[in-house]
Design brief:
Elements lengths: L1 H12 L4 H15 L6 H4 L3 H23 L4 H57 L5 E3 L3 H8 L2 E3 L5 H5 L3 H4 L1 H4 L1 H8 L3 E4 L10 H13 L3 E7 L2 E6 L1 H5 L5
Parallel strand pairs: 1-2, 1-3
Antiparallel strand pairs: 3-5, 4-5
Helix pairs in contact: 1-2, 1-4, 4-5
Length: about 240
């Protein structure tokens, strides 16, 4: 991929310099910046990858065509072998992507729908039982807000620690949960069985559950089928209590 990017950028740069130059500067920034270049930060490079891939495929196709129509037999044989290999590779990629779209994506969506069906009863309970002034700490804060109309905040780990895989610093916001909940005015915490597993390994997720449920001033007011709602004692906030 890197080779395709570089070669394609060089070919593209001969005719259109600004965009490849921008991509070069962005790449240098991402390499020197103290932050992991996750997908949202490298999206501006994807058009360059697509253009570069097209240019390289077109260049390779020209080479194969010249070799097939050329006088040397060994070049023709190699060109046919390379063509067959590329076609088999393309068929394999199409098959894998078709399986992903036809099977994996529906399975992911079904699992997500199942989690939401399990969580719906506690969301309905929150909608009926909690005051309109409540602020919920919820992993799926958007869905919670849309279902209940109650304000919600997603618990966020230390971003730099998360992307640099520093486990101790990643969990620091949960170990000092009062310093996170107090500024947002959070009054309640929702915990569901699937929370945090998409971002943390199972051991860290269990520790987060334990930290949230055992923190001083956190009182359980709802529990059913692994779904837990905690109420935060505001007096412990006022007195600066912490775990």
């Amino acid at each position: 991929i890197t080779a395709i990017l570089v070669r394609g950028a060089l070919r593209l740069g001969r005719n259109s310099a600004p965009y490849p130059a921008f991509c070069l500067v962005l790449t240098l920034v991402l390499c020197t910046w103290n932050f992991s270049p996750n997908i949202r930060l490298i999206l501006p490079l994807l058009p360059l990858l697509a253009i570069s891939l097209y240019l390289e495929v077109r260049f390779l196709a020209d080479l194969i065509q010249r070799a097939i129509h050329g006088p040397r037999r060994d070049n023709r044989v190699f060109a046919y072998i390379l063509t067959v290999g590329l076609l088999l590779g393309a068929c394999y990629c199409i098959r894998k992507n078709t399986i992903f779209v036809a099977r994996t994506v529906p399975a992911i969506l079904d699992q997500d729908r199942q989690h939401k069906r399990v969580a719906d009863p506690v969301l309905e309970w929150c909608r009926r039982s909690l005051p309109a002034s409540a602020v919920m700490l919820a992993f799926n804060d958007t869905y919670f807000y849309l279902k209940t109309g109650i304000k919600a905040v997603r618990p966020v780990p230390d971003s730099v620690a998360f992307y640099t895989h520093n486990r101790e610093r990643t969990l620091v916001n949960f170990r000092n949960i009062k310093s996170f909940t107090r500024p947002f005015g959070i009054t309640h915490i929702l915990i569901t069985p699937g929370d945090y597993l998409s971002e943390f390994d199972s051991g860290d997720a269990r520790e987060i559950f334990s930290l949230l449920t055992s923190a001083p001033g956190h009182h359980e007011i709802y529990s059913s089928q692994g779904l837990v709602v905690l109420e935060i004692d505001q007096n412990s906030h006022a007195t600066g209590g912490s775990n």
